[in-house]
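Form 7-S
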Amino acid sequence: MVNGMTTNRTTKTSAAKSPEKKSRIQVQNRQRIIDAALEVFSSYGFRGSTVAQISDSAAMSKANVLYYYKTKQAIYIALLEHTLVEWLDPLTDIDPAGDPAEELWSYARSKLELSKASPEASRLFANEILQGAPMIRNFLENDLKELVTSKCRVIQTWIDEGKLAPVSPLHLIFFIWASTQHYADFSVQTEILCDSPDSIFNDAEQTLKTLLLNGLLPR
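Output:
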C-alpha cells in the first residue's frame, strides 16, 4: 500500500474485476503521462515538479493530463505504484527452493539491469527517501518491511544450512541495493570517472558477481 493506495499488483487485480474498460487511447495516454512524470519527478522531486512540466514532457495539454489524474499527487502516487512493482519483482522472485548463489546473483543482476534500463526510477526513489518518504512511508513500514523480512528469513535458512557464509541477511540486501543502484543514482559521476563509459555495466556486472559470490559461498 502506498499512502493508503494499493500497489499495481493489487491495482491490476481490481481493474480486472471492474466493469469499466479503458480504451486503447486511454491506456496509451496514461502511460505517456506516467513516462513523462518519471522524467520530471526523478529530476525535481515531488515539491519541485509541476503538472505543467509533466504536460509539456508528455506533449499533452495540462487539461488533458488532469482529465486522467486530478492532482499532481495522484500522478505521483500512480507513478510510484508503477515503479514499486517493477523494482520489487526481482526481490519477490527469490526462490527459497533454488540454489542460494544463483538466486542471489540473479537478484543482483536484475537490479543492475534495472539501473541501466531505468535510472530515473532509482532516482525517483532516492528523491522520495531524501524528502523523508512522505508518500511511501506507509509502504516502507508495511509492504516493503514484510517482503524484506520474509527474504531475510530465506537467506538466514540458507546460512543455517551451511549453503552461504554467515552474514547479516538484511545488510546483504542493503549491499546489493547500494552496489547496483549507485550506477543509476550517480550515473554522471560514474561516467566521468570511467575511461570507457560504454563498458560500465559489463565491468560492474563482472566485479559485483566476483565480490558477491566469493564473499557468500562457504569456504
